[in-house]
Predict the structure.
Amino acid sequence: MDKSRCDQLLDYYNGHLEGEDKQNFEKHLQECEACLSEWTEWQMLTSDLPYLSEEKEPPAGMKDRVLAAVFADQEENQPKAAPIRNMADKENKPVKEASKPWISGLLAAALTLSLAGNAYLFLEKNKQEAALEKTAETFKTITLAPHQSKSSGVASMVKDNGNMKLIVQTHNLNPVKGKEAYQVWLIEGDKKYRAGTFTPDGKGNGAVVFDVNYEGTHNWEAVAVSHEPTAASKEPKGNIVLLSEL
Amino acid sequence: MGTISDFELYERIQKDDREALELLYERYEKLLYSFAFKILQQKELSEDAVQEVFIKIWRNKRTYSKEKGKFSSWMLTVTRNACIDLLRKRSKTETELSDENLQIPASENVEKTVEWREEREQLQSAISTLSEEQKKMVELFYFKGESQQKISESCGVPLGTVKGRIRLALQHLRKKYNEGRDKYGQEPM
């Protein structure tokens, strides 16, 4: 046993040993009773020192920000917002009329591209749509009614290859600030199920595709879009801006 | 109905119970943030450190076990490690010692966290019995995470004596701290 390693205990404690040095010390720690005993002693001797810290008030909104980051890995399993930038030319058209090809385009893109991160989809009406029309079946399309807002939108339930998807497109949403986000909710009775989160583009336009794969059978009654303080809200906390019965 | 223990919350977190993590967060937010701030002296970085701790708790399941001691101590160790990592990542080595760090503050907020406040007061009282050199060494070692080499240079003491000196200081601190607790009729640690 290399006794000279005993001198490295403090540097190991503070994470200054790397690679081979670290491995060798860890091996040493298992063999050297004196070091193991001293290691325990250092931990005991330092265990109260954190309480020397003076009380500091955490910054406003820290909890929401931290929890949103903590739970973000689970959010990543859901498709993310895909704001559409070429929607401006459609804004003046009646929503219903514009919705079908647009939904097809969006779904085509969602199915053929990986919706990773906050990737923007630059939708083009292309050949994919024709192919998609054959596989995707639109169950229902509704116009989302503004709720104390000037926003508008359309939501569709679409079945593609046996998988149910909810497609939401929005217009004129107020911009988000900081950690704010929009969330889409599927409503069944008193229960609200978070379908997903998105942030609109600079013009308030957003479009997203979410998988609807909740356990059990559901009789969805309505779709709502709310403006949330963070992406982590488990229940709508912010204002509902769009709402319609399915 | 008693309060849910930290360990019970931790067990619930193993089953992806978000509410349990939120409860644990609320319970420790201020302590962990204050501790991180003590090390990092910067609001944003301190928030980042706390965030890393909770991300670790949430994503890396089963990293804590009762053999590792009290859950709160383990969380504080994880917090310190996160802070020290962040300190090292900072491009500028802003680790100059603030001589005020181990001094007893002239005034401070007396808040509801009575236990913590009392503990801090006793610790500060114990710290006040250390020599200036000892205070500086404890500060550099524990709150700055410095290497023995750097501590040796900063304090002008031989490298081979650094560990022994800090250990002696900490033992002295612990002795005085326990004496203080005895005086106040509390159980020594």
Summary: Chain B is about 65% helix and 0% strand. The two ends of chain B are 28 Å apart (CA to CA).
